[in-house]
Design a protein that fits this description.
This protein has strands at 2-7, 10-13, 18-26, 31-39, 46-52, 58-59, 67-72, 77-82, 91-99, 105-108, 112-117. With 118 residues, it is an all-beta fold.
Length: 118
Amino acid sequence: QVQLVESGGGLVQAGGSLRLSCVYSGSINMISQMAWYRQAPGKQRELVAFIPNDGNVRYSDFVKGRHTVSRDRAENTVYLQMNSLKPEDTAVYYCNAFSAVPVPRTYWGQGTQVTVSS
């Protein structure tokens, strides 16, 4: 089992920045990849970025150049630094972890609300 707890969401004006944190615990040695997703009202959940264990982060096109994902293994934390925020970035942001062993399994945090005002 893996537990994920997000924090750092809030209200920010367009053009501003926020840093989200995701603290993971439990069977962390089984984690092969972590990711950030978001879900805006009335829309499907979508991938923001993912970071596999090799550290080679992949970003969705809509955040490239604006957001940065990093992982602090000593603190068991993954960060999403969001810059140049736009109103369309408003969503609930979820931390995600994937483990392939012993069976493929996906874990989700409770989500943190990000609201960007125009």
